[in-house]
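Each field is listed here:
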Amino acid sequence: MNKAEKTKQIEHLTEQLNANDKIYLADCSTLTVEKVNAFRRMCFQKNITVTVVKNTLLKKALERANDSKLTELIPALKGETALMFTDTSNAPAKIIKDFRKNGNKPALKGAYVEQMIFIGDQQLEALASLKSKNELIADVIALLQSPIKRVIGGLEHKFKNQDAA
């Protein structure tokens, strides 16, 4: 890869980093080609983009990104790095967790989710338990409906008792 190609790749990575607020870094080294392809398929089904990148190029893109907080991910750039972009905060963490039931790879190197940095594989459980925007909305709606349902149930019960009398 010549200098012009590297510059173009860094610019492309920087654009991707600037366009996403849910970014995961994973280590897929030691996985067989068959397992990597299976992992990619799982990610594709959940609308997660996966790209293996050179650490040196990703480091430069992280340094050039609009959010300076992304530079906190630089220490995680060791070994092979799979870069993952998603619209759902916890989807990559859940896929990594499910995929490695029979091993320890892929390993989470780091993540940038909703302006928060997570470094290390020990953060996988916390990331997997994050609720997506749709899950949070559903929880709020359920909480709002609960008192209304009790009031309506109470009124129905009262009117049934009056009709019976």
In short: The mean pLDDT is 86.
